Each structure stands twice: as structure tokens, then as C-alpha cells.
Amino acid sequence: MQTDFTKKLFLIEDEKIKKIKHDFFQQPQKNISKAEFIEFASHWFLSTKLNNIKGIEQFPHVDITIGCTNFIENICLKNKWNVQVLPDEYSYYALMGKTHTNVGQFEPKVPLIVSMPNWRHGKHNNWQDILNECQEKQIDIHLDCAWLTASKDIDVDLTHPCIKSVGMSISKYIGSWNRVGLRWSKSRTIDSITLLNEREKYNETLTSCGYHVMSNLPRDYGWDTYGEKYKKILQDNNLEATNFFYVAKRQDQLVGLSNMLIK
User: 110: domain range?
Assistant: First the structure.
């Protein structure tokens, strides 16, 4: 029996991903325009065959972001940190002084940021209750889909009127050495991300990196490459599956399988 799963959730860093990083720094990279990158990255993010994303056409305003952290912080700053988050969200929010709000106790008209899927439990079993309460209390919802690139069996229905923006990034494959992603918005807003895009003031390394990674890494790479080995590790170690290809559960605790998957 193998026992080298980890309490910390390390990203997969196999030979293919190492080579993508190596080649980015060693080879000349293409300067890509904002419009070309947005079209290319949109196709990559939305081309998953393992998840179902419905209603993205209702979000016509697309901007480049410095990953999902930029997407989140932009919402928080625009609302002077008067935002709400659900239980079991990132410790990031607690570090910034935010406590979670339970379903049924949302404050009216205060934006809600939701991880979709949630890093701890994947799907939100009470999602319809969340939507109903937000509609009743006129609460805008912003979806942080950072974990969607590493997931399967997630349905994201964006057609609900309370959902106002969606963010995705490539960080769950390449980590923090270069962060880039997209924000889809239902309506055009004036904020730091908008201004960054209108003036094209983002670092061009962001778009060059994103284009290089997405050109060389299939959208569903994690599950397509490690799905069968993941199932074998679960069987051999009496672990419970999650929606994420390098994360499992052991006695209700999350464990990382990255080291075991690349052996």
C-alpha cells in the first residue's frame, strides 16, 4: 500500500508541464494581441468535455485578468470589501478579515463571491437555495471558476439573472509562476480590470505565457492523463474520490495525490 499522499494540495508537475515551462523561457514567444488572446483563451477554457458550461453567451464582455486572484480582488476593492462568501471558502478571505455567511442569512444587496466548483467539496448541493435567496434579496453573484480546469462532472449554469461575472485561470496547471485568465461579464463595468484592458496596460508576458501554455496543454489534460491511475490509487488506499484529478478524501480530510500520480 502506498502512503505518500500529502496533506498539502500540490499541483501536478510532470515532465510535460515542466517542458512547457522550460520552453516558454528558452524559446522566442509570440506577441499576441488582446483580441486574439481573448478569442483563443475563451475557446480553450470553454472546450472542456468533462464539464458542462451553459449560458456563457449571456456574458459578452470579456477581459484579460492576472488570474482569478485579480478577478476576486477587483470585486472586493470595487465594493470596499463589503462582499459575502460561503463557508469552506479559501483562507484568503479570512486573512483579509472576512467571515463566511451561511445560506439563509445573506445580507441583501451585498455581492456574493462563490467558488464554482468549491475547492473542498466540488459541487454545491444547496446551489438552488443559494440562487433563490440571492434573487429574493437582490444579491449579485460572481463565480470564481479557478478549480474548473482541474475538475470533472461539474455543471455550471450561468443563465440565472443574479450571476453577473465569471472568472477562470490556468493556475491549477502551472501554479503561480505566471497567472493569466479571463473574466466574462454580463454588463460592462468600469473598474481596474476594465481599465487594464481598455488601455492594454497588462504585461504582455501574461498573454504570451497563456497562449504558449494553452497551445501545448489540452484543456482536460489532468483527467485525460491521470484518470485511470487516480482510480487505482483510490482503490489501493481506501480513499474517496473528488471532482479534482489530484485531490482525494481520507476520513473527510483532503489529501493531495500529485506525487503518487507522477511516479
Answer: 30-216
User: Which tens digits make up the pLDDT trace of 23-49?
Assistant: 999 999 888 999 999 999 999 999 999
Cβ atoms 185, 191 nearer than 8 A: no
The answer to whether residue 44 sits within a structural domain is: yes
Residue 263 lies in a domain: no
In order of 122, 129, 242, the CA distances from 125 in angstroms are 9, 9, 14
Q: Is residue 24 part of a domain?
A: no
User: What's the length of the chain?
Assistant: 263
CATH code of the domain containing 62: 3.40.640.10
**pTM confidence score:** 0.95
Structural domain count of the chain: 1
SS3 157: strand
8, 41, 20, 49: which is closest to 174 by C-alpha?
20
Instruction: Give counts: helices (H), strands (E), the chain.
Output: 10, 11
Question: Is the bond into 60 cis (omega within 30 degrees of 0)?
Answer: no
Alpha-carbon Rg for the chain, nearest whole angstrom, is: 19
227 in Cβ contact with 234 (< 8 Å): no
Question: Could you give the C-alpha distances from 199 to 40, 183, 185, 192, 193, in angstroms and in order?
Answer: 20, 16, 18, 11, 10
Torsion of CA 219, 220, 222, 228, to 10 degrees: -160
In a domain, 204, yes or no: yes
- Contacting residues for 96 by C-beta, under 8 A, at least 6 apart: 76, 81
The pLDDT of residue 1: 46
What is the 8-class DSSP label of residue 168? Answer: E
